[in-house]
Amino acid sequence: MGARRAGEDGAAGGDTDRRKGGADTDRRIGRRALLIGGTAAAVGTAVLARDELARLWWRAPGVEKPRKEGQVDYAGARWVAASDANWRRADRPDDYGIDMVVIHVTQGSFDSAVKVFQDPGHGAAAHYIVGKDGTIAQMIRELDVAYHAGNRDYNERSVGIEHEGFVDRPQDFTGEMYEASARLTARICARYDIPVDREHIIGHVEVPGTDHTDPGKHWDWDRYMKLVRKARTAVA
């Protein structure tokens, strides 16, 4: 991958560069709590504040939202945990709505992608990796924010899927890979009611503010989108 540490605005896979991003803090939560607290007081009820606190309680210091170790969001995936330095704990889609899938290419092998996503010094990782043989590994839960897109807003609103191979090697994009990835994307779209179109299923190259080229000119978007639509119909 040849990736350098990317931090909060990290970009996973492809020809990765460093994007300067501030440390992830809870300042946003503090502002939201104050706003909701003020609104609740203004209307004479604590319902809104109570609901917000119920949703955000696990972000308080020393408190974690209950998680089942090794649980996957897609039944066809096996769990391989990324380093917790390469993603941010969240409660999506309750705190950040998910309306996009971002397609990446690893610029390396499946195993090398797993290795760098498990490296805390890498600073980036995607939710899933799809191999040439159709194998799928989930490394970050969909409810959490993966540092994969090189753009904080896109990180928060998307699910990132890496694909084993190189952008200049069309032979790396096998039928097994396209089929497996399309089923995965279709399931994600069904789960979050994401439209199956090129405005919501995009390549890393299309993320604003990045200089990545993946998935590259050899990625067959027409073929892929037809497969996603077919799989999405089957899911419905």
Task: Summarize, please.
With 236 residues, the chain is an alpha/beta fold.
Largest sheet: 6 strands, mixed
Structural class: alpha/beta
Note the run of SSEs as H and E: HHEEEHEEEHEHEH
What is the alpha-carbon Rg in Å? 18 Å
Number of strands: 8
The rounded distance between the terminal residues' Cα atoms is 36 Å
* Order of strands, widest sheet: 1-5-4-7-3-8
Number of helices: 6
**Which percent range describes the beta-strand content?**
5-15%
From the structure above, extract its key features.
two-stranded antiparallel sheet, single chain, disordered N terminus, 6 helices, 236 residues, 6-stranded mixed β-sheet, 8 strands, 31% helix, globular, alpha/beta
Descriptive account of the structure:
It contains 6 helices and 8 strands, in the order H-H-E-E-E-H-E-E-E-H-E-H-E-H. The strands form 2 sheets. Strands 1-5-4-7-3-8 form a 6-stranded mixed beta sheet, with helices on both faces. The protein has a two-stranded antiparallel ribbon with strand order 2-6. It has helices at residues 27-43, 47-56, 110-117, 152-157, 175-192, 221-235; strands spanning 78-79, 87-88, 100-103, 128-130, 136-138, 145-146, 158-163, 201-203. It is globular, with a radius of gyration of 18 Å. The protein is of the alpha/beta class. It starts with 26 loop residues before the first helix and ends with a helix. It is 31% helix and 11% strand. Helix 5 (175-192) crosses helix 6.
